[in-house]
Fold this sequence. Notes:
Blueprint: E1 12-21, E2 24-34, E3 39-43, H1 50-58, E4 65-70, E5 73-74, H2 80-87, E6 90-93, H3 105-110, H4 119-127, H5 132-141, H6 157-171, E7 175-179, H7 187-197, E8 205-210, H8 213-219, E9 222-227, E10 230-236, H9 242-249
Parallel strand pairs: 3-8, 3-9, 6-7, 7-8
Antiparallel strand pairs: 1-2, 1-4, 4-5, 9-10
Amino acid sequence: MSEPRPAGPPPIRLRDVARSYGRHLALAGIDLEVRAGERVAILGASGAGKSTLLALMGGSLAPTSGTVELFGQDITRLAGSPRRRLQRRIGTVSQRLTLVEQVRVLHNVNAGRLAEWSTGRALGSLLWPRGLDEVRDALDRVDLGWALHERTERLSGGERQRVAIARLLVQCPELVLADEPVSSLDPVGAAHVLGLIGDPGLARTLVVSLHQPLLAQEHCTRAVGLREGMVVFDVPVAELEQQRLHDLYARA
Length: 252
Protein backbone atom coordinates (compact mmCIF):
# COMPACT_ATOMS: atom_id res chain seq x y z
CA MET A 1 0.00 0.00 0.00
CA SER A 2 1.49 3.37 -1.06
CA GLU A 3 2.00 6.16 1.45
CA PRO A 4 -0.52 9.05 1.29
CA ARG A 5 0.82 12.21 -0.30
CA PRO A 6 0.92 15.38 1.80
CA ALA A 7 -1.95 17.80 1.15
CA GLY A 8 -1.28 20.94 -0.87
CA PRO A 9 1.00 21.67 -3.80
CA PRO A 10 4.55 20.28 -3.84
CA PRO A 11 7.31 22.61 -2.62
CA ILE A 12 9.00 22.43 -6.04
CA ARG A 13 7.69 21.75 -9.54
CA LEU A 14 9.72 22.41 -12.70
CA ARG A 15 8.05 22.08 -16.07
CA ASP A 16 10.13 21.84 -19.26
CA VAL A 17 12.72 24.18 -17.77
CA ALA A 18 15.77 25.31 -19.73
CA ARG A 19 18.49 27.78 -18.86
CA SER A 20 21.05 29.25 -21.24
CA TYR A 21 24.06 31.47 -20.70
CA GLY A 22 24.53 33.10 -24.08
CA ARG A 23 24.97 30.23 -26.51
CA HIS A 24 25.70 27.73 -23.76
CA LEU A 25 22.72 25.58 -22.81
CA ALA A 26 23.24 24.76 -19.11
CA LEU A 27 19.94 22.92 -18.54
CA ALA A 28 17.37 21.55 -20.99
CA GLY A 29 13.98 19.87 -20.71
CA ILE A 30 13.92 19.61 -16.91
CA ASP A 31 10.67 18.16 -15.57
CA LEU A 32 10.98 17.60 -11.85
CA GLU A 33 8.71 17.57 -8.83
CA VAL A 34 9.84 17.46 -5.20
CA ARG A 35 7.19 16.51 -2.67
CA ALA A 36 6.95 17.74 0.91
CA GLY A 37 9.29 15.90 3.26
CA GLU A 38 11.46 14.39 0.54
CA ARG A 39 15.24 14.47 0.79
CA VAL A 40 16.53 14.64 -2.77
CA ALA A 41 20.19 14.38 -3.77
CA ILE A 42 21.29 15.98 -7.05
CA LEU A 43 24.28 14.07 -8.40
CA GLY A 44 26.54 14.77 -11.35
CA ALA A 45 30.03 15.75 -12.43
CA SER A 46 31.28 19.34 -12.24
CA GLY A 47 29.58 21.37 -14.95
CA ALA A 48 26.54 19.11 -15.15
CA GLY A 49 24.20 21.94 -14.12
CA LYS A 50 23.64 21.18 -10.42
CA SER A 51 24.23 24.73 -9.14
CA THR A 52 22.11 26.21 -11.92
CA LEU A 53 19.27 23.83 -11.07
CA LEU A 54 19.34 24.77 -7.38
CA ALA A 55 19.45 28.50 -8.22
CA LEU A 56 16.36 28.07 -10.39
CA MET A 57 14.59 26.20 -7.60
CA GLY A 58 15.28 29.03 -5.16
CA GLY A 59 14.22 31.79 -7.52
CA SER A 60 17.61 33.52 -7.56
CA LEU A 61 17.90 32.63 -11.26
CA ALA A 62 15.14 32.82 -13.88
CA PRO A 63 14.64 30.07 -16.47
CA THR A 64 15.20 30.87 -20.13
CA SER A 65 12.04 28.88 -20.80
CA GLY A 66 9.59 26.74 -18.85
CA THR A 67 8.07 27.35 -15.42
CA VAL A 68 9.36 27.05 -11.86
CA GLU A 69 6.69 26.71 -9.17
CA LEU A 70 7.42 27.00 -5.45
CA PHE A 71 4.65 25.90 -3.11
CA GLY A 72 2.25 26.08 -6.06
CA GLN A 73 3.21 29.60 -7.20
CA ASP A 74 5.13 30.51 -10.34
CA ILE A 75 8.15 32.29 -8.88
CA THR A 76 8.89 34.08 -12.17
CA ARG A 77 5.55 35.90 -11.96
CA LEU A 78 6.02 37.17 -8.41
CA ALA A 79 7.67 40.39 -7.28
CA GLY A 80 7.84 42.58 -4.19
CA SER A 81 6.21 41.39 -0.97
CA PRO A 82 4.58 38.22 -2.40
CA ARG A 83 7.96 37.04 -3.68
CA ARG A 84 9.72 37.84 -0.40
CA ARG A 85 7.05 36.01 1.61
CA LEU A 86 7.53 32.93 -0.54
CA GLN A 87 11.31 33.01 -0.29
CA ARG A 88 11.16 33.28 3.52
CA ARG A 89 9.99 29.67 3.46
CA ILE A 90 13.25 28.65 1.78
CA GLY A 91 16.69 28.29 3.33
CA THR A 92 19.83 28.06 1.22
CA VAL A 93 23.38 26.93 1.76
CA SER A 94 25.81 27.42 -1.09
CA GLN A 95 29.48 27.00 -1.89
CA ARG A 96 29.77 30.79 -1.82
CA LEU A 97 29.12 31.49 1.82
CA THR A 98 27.19 34.73 2.26
CA LEU A 99 28.74 35.54 5.61
CA VAL A 100 29.91 38.94 6.81
CA GLU A 101 33.51 38.18 7.69
CA GLN A 102 34.14 41.24 9.88
CA VAL A 103 31.37 40.63 12.43
CA ARG A 104 31.09 38.12 15.22
CA VAL A 105 29.74 34.65 14.57
CA LEU A 106 26.57 35.28 16.58
CA HIS A 107 25.54 38.07 14.17
CA ASN A 108 25.98 35.83 11.13
CA VAL A 109 23.85 33.13 12.75
CA ASN A 110 21.18 35.68 13.70
CA ALA A 111 21.02 36.71 10.03
CA GLY A 112 18.81 33.66 9.60
CA ARG A 113 16.02 35.70 11.21
CA LEU A 114 16.45 38.95 9.28
CA ALA A 115 13.46 38.21 7.04
CA GLU A 116 11.24 38.23 10.15
CA TRP A 117 12.70 41.38 11.71
CA SER A 118 12.16 45.06 11.00
CA THR A 119 15.16 47.12 9.90
CA GLY A 120 15.29 48.78 13.33
CA ARG A 121 15.25 45.47 15.17
CA ALA A 122 17.98 44.06 12.93
CA LEU A 123 20.22 47.08 13.46
CA GLY A 124 19.54 47.07 17.19
CA SER A 125 20.59 43.44 17.41
CA LEU A 126 24.08 44.39 16.25
CA LEU A 127 24.46 46.33 19.52
CA TRP A 128 22.26 44.23 21.81
CA PRO A 129 22.11 40.75 20.28
CA ARG A 130 18.74 39.02 20.47
CA GLY A 131 17.93 35.35 20.79
CA LEU A 132 21.33 34.36 22.13
CA ASP A 133 20.02 31.11 23.59
CA GLU A 134 18.78 29.98 20.16
CA VAL A 135 22.01 31.07 18.50
CA ARG A 136 24.10 29.24 21.09
CA ASP A 137 21.99 26.09 20.68
CA ALA A 138 22.39 26.16 16.89
CA LEU A 139 26.16 26.58 17.22
CA ASP A 140 26.33 23.75 19.75
CA ARG A 141 24.56 21.49 17.25
CA VAL A 142 27.33 22.10 14.69
CA ASP A 143 30.08 21.82 17.34
CA LEU A 144 30.87 25.53 17.30
CA GLY A 145 29.50 26.62 20.66
CA TRP A 146 32.92 27.99 21.58
CA ALA A 147 32.81 30.43 18.61
CA LEU A 148 29.76 32.46 19.66
CA HIS A 149 31.71 35.72 20.12
CA GLU A 150 34.55 34.99 17.68
CA ARG A 151 35.04 37.18 14.62
CA THR A 152 33.95 35.16 11.62
CA GLU A 153 37.09 35.99 9.62
CA ARG A 154 39.21 34.08 12.17
CA LEU A 155 37.48 30.76 11.46
CA SER A 156 38.63 28.12 9.00
CA GLY A 157 36.73 27.39 5.82
CA GLY A 158 35.07 24.33 7.33
CA GLU A 159 34.09 26.26 10.45
CA ARG A 160 32.55 29.02 8.35
CA GLN A 161 30.54 26.42 6.49
CA ARG A 162 29.17 25.23 9.83
CA VAL A 163 28.27 28.82 10.75
CA ALA A 164 26.15 28.91 7.59
CA ILE A 165 24.45 25.68 8.70
CA ALA A 166 23.78 27.18 12.15
CA ARG A 167 22.19 30.21 10.47
CA LEU A 168 19.93 27.81 8.57
CA LEU A 169 18.94 26.03 11.79
CA VAL A 170 17.89 29.35 13.34
CA GLN A 171 15.86 30.25 10.25
CA CYS A 172 14.01 26.89 10.38
CA PRO A 173 12.73 26.95 6.76
CA GLU A 174 10.22 24.56 5.20
CA LEU A 175 12.48 23.92 2.20
CA VAL A 176 16.28 23.72 2.20
CA LEU A 177 18.32 24.06 -0.98
CA ALA A 178 21.94 23.12 -0.32
CA ASP A 179 24.63 23.40 -2.99
CA GLU A 180 27.61 21.25 -1.98
CA PRO A 181 27.11 22.08 1.73
CA VAL A 182 29.74 19.60 2.94
CA SER A 183 32.46 20.14 0.34
CA SER A 184 34.91 21.56 2.90
CA LEU A 185 34.14 19.09 5.71
CA ASP A 186 35.71 15.78 6.66
CA PRO A 187 33.56 12.62 6.36
CA VAL A 188 32.44 12.72 9.99
CA GLY A 189 31.56 16.41 9.81
CA ALA A 190 29.78 15.93 6.49
CA ALA A 191 27.59 13.15 7.87
CA HIS A 192 26.78 15.26 10.95
CA VAL A 193 25.77 18.33 8.92
CA LEU A 194 23.61 16.33 6.49
CA GLY A 195 21.93 14.70 9.46
CA LEU A 196 21.04 18.16 10.79
CA ILE A 197 19.71 19.78 7.63
CA GLY A 198 17.97 16.63 6.44
CA ASP A 199 16.51 15.52 9.77
CA PRO A 200 13.23 13.77 8.83
CA GLY A 201 11.86 14.56 12.28
CA LEU A 202 11.64 18.24 11.28
CA ALA A 203 9.33 17.51 8.30
CA ARG A 204 11.66 19.64 6.23
CA THR A 205 12.07 19.19 2.48
CA LEU A 206 15.69 19.01 1.32
CA VAL A 207 17.31 19.26 -2.09
CA VAL A 208 21.09 18.91 -1.88
CA SER A 209 23.80 18.65 -4.53
CA LEU A 210 26.54 16.20 -3.64
CA HIS A 211 29.64 14.68 -5.17
CA GLN A 212 29.60 11.68 -2.83
CA PRO A 213 26.93 9.09 -3.77
CA LEU A 214 27.46 7.28 -0.45
CA LEU A 215 26.26 10.37 1.44
CA ALA A 216 23.20 10.49 -0.80
CA GLN A 217 22.41 6.87 -0.01
CA GLU A 218 22.79 7.43 3.73
CA HIS A 219 20.94 10.73 4.09
CA CYS A 220 18.50 11.08 1.19
CA THR A 221 15.43 9.25 -0.05
CA ARG A 222 15.79 9.96 -3.76
CA ALA A 223 18.59 10.62 -6.25
CA VAL A 224 18.45 12.68 -9.43
CA GLY A 225 21.36 12.33 -11.85
CA LEU A 226 22.34 15.28 -14.06
CA ARG A 227 24.60 14.91 -17.07
CA GLU A 228 25.28 17.73 -19.51
CA GLY A 229 22.26 19.66 -18.30
CA MET A 230 19.73 16.85 -18.56
CA VAL A 231 18.17 14.45 -16.07
CA VAL A 232 19.43 10.96 -16.84
CA PHE A 233 17.87 9.19 -13.86
CA ASP A 234 15.46 9.92 -11.02
CA VAL A 235 15.26 6.98 -8.62
CA PRO A 236 14.91 6.01 -4.96
CA VAL A 237 18.39 5.84 -3.41
CA ALA A 238 17.94 2.08 -2.99
CA GLU A 239 18.14 1.80 -6.80
CA LEU A 240 21.36 3.81 -7.09
CA GLU A 241 23.50 0.97 -8.40
CA GLN A 242 27.16 1.21 -9.43
CA GLN A 243 26.62 0.98 -13.19
CA ARG A 244 24.24 3.95 -13.13
CA LEU A 245 26.80 6.01 -11.21
CA HIS A 246 29.61 4.92 -13.55
CA ASP A 247 27.62 6.10 -16.57
CA LEU A 248 26.81 9.39 -14.83
CA TYR A 249 30.44 10.32 -14.12
CA ALA A 250 32.14 8.70 -17.12
CA ARG A 251 33.88 11.13 -19.44
CA ALA A 252 31.89 11.93 -22.56
